[in-house]
Amino acid sequence: MKLYPTVREIMNKDVETVSLEDTITHAAKIMKEKKIGSLLIKGYPIGIITATDIIYKHVAEGKGNHVKDIATSPVITISPNRTVEQAAKLLAEKNIEKLPVLDGDRIVGIVTATDILKVQPSLFEILLEKMETVSGPSAEEERMEFSECESCMNYSDDVEEVDGKFLCSECRS
């Protein structure tokens, strides 16, 4: 007897994307038009931009005008063959709201806590219990503060993408 459906069965297959060079305003307009809270970055899952990123990083902190200036990276993903329970646990453990679904190296969908609760309300306790035990800043907030430079391997609060690599200010100069 199958206890939990797979991510493939519940994921939203209509994934909206933007490029790193798109403006934040363009991204926000897509989110409003499609009534969604996030957009994936085109190509291999480079990152994700959420409504929260726009509010906290762009509006409140004044960071940049382009998606690349505020996108969250790296993005946490899940396989479409995983169970809904595994997805719920991953969302809770990483304190995130959305999981891009990767089949090999191809984005095939996105799953959210809301998607999971619609089909498996019994997982509410798992999501709630895990979120209550997580202390400190969320995974998104931690990535927002410090990221690893792909050149020197140091962590910095000023890592930016240059020619496909994430570099700190020292390695960019």
How would you describe what is shown here?
- The protein has 173 residues and is of the alpha+beta class.
- It folds into two domains: 7-135, CBS-domain (Roll), CATH 3.10.580; 145-173, no CATH class.
- Helices cover 39% and strands 18% of the residues.
- It contains nine helices and nine strands.
- It has helices spanning 7-10, 24-34, 51-60, 67-70, 84-94, 113-119, 124-133, 139-145, 169-172; strands at 17-18, 38-41, 48-50, 98-103, 106-112, 147-148, 155-156, 160-162, 165-167.
- A three-stranded mixed beta sheet has the order 1-2-3. A two-stranded antiparallel sheet has the order 4-5. A two-stranded antiparallel ribbon has the order 6-7.
- Strand 4 and strand 5 form a beta hairpin.
- The longest helix is centred in the N-terminal third of the chain and has 11 residues, at 24-34.
List the helices and strands and how they pair.
Elements: H1 7-10, E1 17-18, H2 24-34, E2 38-41, E3 48-50, H3 51-60, H4 67-70, H5 84-94, E4 98-103, E5 106-112, H6 113-119, H7 124-133, H8 139-145, E6 147-148, E7 155-156, E8 160-162, E9 165-167, H9 169-172
Parallel strand pairs: 1-2
Antiparallel strand pairs: 2-3, 4-5, 6-7, 8-9
Helix pairs in contact: 5-7
Oligomer, anyone? single chain
Q: Strand share of the residues? A: 15-25%
General shape: globular
Major sheet description:
3 strands, mixed
CATH homologous group name of the largest domain: CBS-domain
Identify low-pLDDT runs: 133-145
Spatial arrangement of strands, main beta sheet: 1-2-3
CATH fold topology of the largest domain: CBS-domain
Number of domains: 2
What CATH architecture of the largest domain do you see?
Roll
Derived from helix and strand composition plus strand pairing, the structural class reads alpha+beta
Topology order in helix (H) and strand (E) letters: HEHEEHHHEEHHHEEEEH
Q: What is Rg? A: 17 Å
Average pLDDT level: 82
The strand count comes to 9
Span of the ends, CA to CA: 59 Å
CATH class of the largest domain: Alpha Beta
